[in-house]
Amino acid sequence: MKMKFMLAMLPLVAATSAWADDASGNAELVKRGEYLATAGDCTACHTAPGADKTAKFGGGYPLASPFGVIYGTNISSDKEFGIGSWTDDEFVRAVREGVGKDGQQLYPAMPYDSFTKMKRDDVLAVKAYLMSLPAVHSAGPQTDLSFPFNQRWGMRVWKLFNFDKGELKNDPSKSADWNRGAYLVEALEHCGTCHTPRTLTMGMDTDKAFSGGDLGSWVAFNITPDKNAGIGTWSQQELVTYLKTGFVAGKASASGGMGEAIEHSLQHLSDSDLNAIAIYIRSVPAIGDDKQTTPRDAWGQQSQDVYPLRAEGQTVNESAVALFNASCAACHGKGGAGSGEGFHAYPSLFSHTSTGSYDSRNQVSVILNGVQRKMDKGEIMMPSFADQLNDEQIATLSNYVSTQFGNPAGATVTAKEVAKMRKDAALPYPPKIEEGTQK
Fold it and tell me: Which residues belong to any copy of the Cytochrome c domain (predicted)?
């Protein structure tokens, strides 16, 4: 009788064991998918600004393009508005080919020209992770571009010129770290999307890969090994530290889109993957720029000219020096050398890639937008001055910083240019200050 009972229980034990193995395997798949989704920075474009955890991947992030605003879509597990009813093939096709569930062409704001290089198994791991999360039952704002850019069939023509379909293959002549770095840079992290210039048809100019991209009010700097225009003076460890923390003293501090990439993606990668990224990016062909004749982090020096006017009681509107005294000196130091040490240090205004560039858009954008990076170790913050300084003051301040601490070639900012950058970023304008009063 005992033997019969044991034999009868065998199918149940086998089924339970199989279920446990399947659950364990799915948990590992979801965990891997979470890491890959983080490496791909999916949350940056598919989660609305200010959304809480319950709305993660619910879409609604506005992406500025030369043709209008494109909104990130809902990729949560919701069956009506998200990907809950998508098959594996449909999801892979969207990620790697830019074709939606119903056959509609996706705009290349979704970087499928990079994601096409992803392994199918990795794409499906990302899907498993997304499907494990709560559904966000919201359609979110819909992309509505003007004619002819609202004709999605036109993306087929765009793809003829700009889309090379296919998974990235390993180069057997290179090391495992180099190949891993290539996969991360070229596919998952899609670094070229921002750091590569665009052609007339708005595709990536692969002949000038990673030599810098125009992001409107921001510049994605040259990250090739060129010593003047790029990162040729950076060590392996400096690159890894920057990717992990967004800050290297005497080199750079991350802001704008790069700050977001570090916050949402890069800081969460393993040290081995960060090292692999640095190995690969230091190996790509160096591309120079005749306008950048000295390394961006080699410009400027400490200045002592910023205080004399303090004792004279000048208002913030009377000189560039007074503007600097009132707005910058408290954090960046009286001579622009920065203040503090370690993670929460305020960066120097000289020996900095933004102030040392002949293109000062990033510098102006930082003054307008501020800096906010929510890091694992704490928050890095610089306030926005958009509601305190008018366009003329910001232009004056930026030009002073370029002349006094950085590359004088960048001291060409006009109030009109600041006004456009303010408008593009939908930033407030400071209230009018009555004559004879101080702000």
Answer: 28-134, 176-285, 315-405
